[in-house]
Design brief:
Helix content is 43%, strand content 23%. The protein is an alpha+beta fold and 253 residues long. The protein has 3 domains: 69 residues, Integrase, N-terminal zinc-binding domain (Arc Repressor Mutant, subunit A, Orthogonal Bundle), CATH 1.10.10.200; 89 residues, YebC, transcriptional regulation domain (Alpha-Beta Plaits); 70 residues, Alpha-Beta Plaits (2-Layer Sandwich). β1 and β2 form a beta hairpin. α2 runs antiparallel to α3 and α2 packs parallel to α4. The two termini are 29 Å apart.
């Protein structure tokens, strides 16, 4: 079983992403463009593109914007060329952090990510420094209003659903990478709508690092600053915190 992402829970409650809709659209457009460039513009034969388009629609991105991003990826329209990057480092208290980027200038992305780590009392590490603490998984977010936990379990258990983590508003279904599409189809076949579905770096349960007190705010400031960078797509961390600390943060959000 993989570690539950406290950061995703906090981020969702704080509404940090929804408050920056334009930035969200920028990240989604880049993902669609790169997915179409790497695997072609046919959603049926390109699972990454299909997931990117589904996520964009869930964020209420206009269809015309989605189609334009796809055409740029396939070369039918001129556009910026993005390069994928994966950075690893340590934050305050020694928590592990992984950062996925899509940038048109890798040197700029490296410089900005390093600057944020340094500014927030962390440090950027070498490739492989913390990746061993995480596993590559499929993660699907299902709003609790769309299905009970029992119905969700019944829908995904035979399709490859590995774990379900319950949150106040959203349940996260974890799968093996190769089972993500099958689990998504199982949800669709059972009439269960999902908000987001993508591959993610999920911390291993044995490598979760509990943090409390002032350390929590320091880590959150680092993660928020990283996600606020234009070139950064996703940020992952293995930090954990006592339930009392989580409840306090949720009450303040």
């Amino acid at each position: 079983m993989s570690g539950h992402s406290k950061w995703s829970t906090i981020k969702r409650k704080k509404g940090a992403i929804d408050a920056k809709r334009g930035k969200v659209f920028t990240k989604l457009i880049r993902e669609i463009t790169v997915a179409a460039k790497d695997g072609g513009g046919d959603e049926d034969s390109n699972p990454r593109l299909r997931a990117a388009v589904q996520n964009a629609k869930a964020a209420n991105m206009p269809v015309a914007t989605i189609e334009r991003a796809m055409r740029r990826g396939t070369g039918e329209e001129p556009g910026t060329v993005y390069e994928e990057g994966l950075f690893e480092g340590y934050g305050p208290g020694g928590v592990a952090v992984m950062v996925e980027t899509l940038a048109d200038n890798r040197n700029r992305a490296v410089s900005e990510v390093r600057h944020v780590f340094t500014k927030h009392n962390g440090n950027l590490g070498e490739s492989g420094a913390v990746a061993w603490m995480f596993e590559r998984k499929g993660v699907i977010e299902v709003e609790r209003a769309n299905a009970s936990e029992d119905d969700l379990l019944l829908a995904v258990m035979d399709a490859g659903g590995e774990d379900i983590q319950s949150g106040d508003e959203v349940n996260e279904v974890t799968t093996q990478v190769f089972d993500l599409e099958a689990v998504k189809k199982a949800l669709e076949d059972n009439g269960i709508a999902f908000a987001q579905a993508s591959l993610a770096w999920v911390p291993k349960i044995e490598n979760m690092l509990e943090v409390g007190g002032e350390g929590v705010e320091k880590i959150i400031r680092l993660l928020e600053a990283l996600e606020d960078l234009d070139d950064v797509q996703k940020v992952y961390s293995n930090f954990d915190l006592p339930e009392a600390e989580l409840e306090k943060l949720m009450a303040e959000a």
